[in-house]
Amino acid sequence: MMLERPLLLLLSLVLCSCAAQPGEGAVPGHCSDGADNDADGTYDCSDSDCLSSPDCLGDDDDDTADDDDTADDDDTADDDDTADDDDTADDDDTADDDDTVGDDDDAGGPLEGLVYTGDVVFLSDADMASFCESWDQIAGNVTIAGAAVTSLSALACLKRVDGLVEVTGTEVLDLELPSLIEVGGDLLIYDNYPLGGIELLALRFVAGSLKVEEQPWLDELRLPELSSVGADVHLQQLAFLATVELPLLTSVGGSLWLRYIEIAESFEMDALQSVGADLWLSGNPVLQHISWPELLSVGGELMVSAHPLLAHVDLPVLGAAGGLRINSNAALVSFALPQLEEMLGLPGSLRLSSCDVLELFELPALEFIGDFLMVAGNVSLTQLNLPSLGFVGGDFYILDNSSLTAESAEALRDSIGVWNIGGTVVISGNGN
User: CA-to-CA distance for 153 and 144, rounded, in angstroms?
Assistant: First the structure.
């Protein structure tokens, strides 16, 4: 009996000791000490006893879901943080992710970040001096005007303006806004007498019109990234403009005017695909060729007028135009629109006149003319080839083309059919 009592006492002490073993996480630091403190085979944050421990909440992991932290996971979804993840969707930041979908800083999105709200008028260099210390975007209109403005370098930070940008009457020599990506309204540049160059190297989008007019000494216009203008593009009254560089411009929502640009031999706009209204080229005295290989449609009238040196017009994929006016191009020898099928917009007419050396005028695919047809005063024209034409909505005039035989003019009338001509037919003054 004396041996049994000590043995029972020892067993009781061992059992009591095991029952009193604290659980993992019961003591501060247990969930981060690398030890299995309750001897149950799991430890630290892997032990279910540590699920509510501060050591196991809010840490970055390599899981596939979001934490409630403020740092990046290596997951595939968005966190509620303010920095970029290595995911494939957008965060709520104001910078670009590594995805292929537009962020909220892309064209057309809301202005976020260092935004000045309200219209701004800069009347001197001093007015602009401190702008970039506080802002880089403007939610409003911007007017830059007056002889006290000699440079726009103080606006080098300006990225976006969601309204009008107007630059007029300044003494700026070179107009450069290297960070400007988007203009939400019109971009108007006019009457800046000494202005010699315009370089907007980052500009991609103008929601309104782009107009550069009445700049007597401007010799270069470079907008290498501009792809879309929502309304009109008017470049006119630019006596010394030699370089027009718009290589990525694909779409003009309104009219495109290139007029009275006196020393430009060509216009670099090879990506142009569509013009929503009139496309007018007129009074460009040294222009030698027009070639827009991607142009598909012109919503209004295509006018090529008053070019003494223009020899070639090549629009190989143009399929539709609202009208066609080709007149007073003294050196024009070829005019190629092989895919033009219809002119049913406004004005809907075809006019070819006073192109003195043009011998062949051919529109092989043209089927419809919505209004009148006039071919007049082309002294060298010998062939008028419109084999697919089946309808003229207005008058039919072929007049005073001294090298074109009357029989050729009458053959065109007959191939259309007088019943498919909506107005008066006049064939007069042509060759024998």
Answer: 13
Q: Is the peptide bond before 347 cis (omega within 30 degrees of 0)?
A: yes
Token pair, residue 392, equals: 């003229």
* Distance (Å, whole) CA 215 – CA 32: 73
- HEC string of 286-305? CCCEEECCCCCEEEEEEEEE
pTM: 0.75
- Lowest-confidence region among 264-268, 302-306, 384-388: 264-268
Answer for the pair 398, 377: CB distance below 8 angstroms, yes or no: no
Query: Residue 244, Cα to own-chain centre: how many angstroms?
Result: 17
Q: What is the edge-to-edge ordering of all strands in the sheet holding 220-222?
A: 174-176, 197-199, 220-222, 243-245
DSSP output for 251-288: EESS-EEEEEETT-S--B-TT--EESS-EEEE--TT--
Q: Average pLDDT for residues 357-368, to the nearest whole number? A: 96
Q: What are the CA-CA distances from residue 288 to residues 99, 311, 326, 334 (Å)?
A: 44, 6, 15, 12
Query: What's phi and psi for 139, nearest 5 deg?
Result: -95, 80
β-partners of residue 426 are 397
pLDDT tens for 29-44 read 667 676 777 777 676 7
- Which residue, among 295, 344, 354, has the nearest Cα to 324 in the 3D structure? 344
Instruction: Give 296-355 pLDDT, tens digit per residue.
Output: 999 999 999 999 999 999 999 999 999 999 999 999 999 989 999 988 777 799 999 999
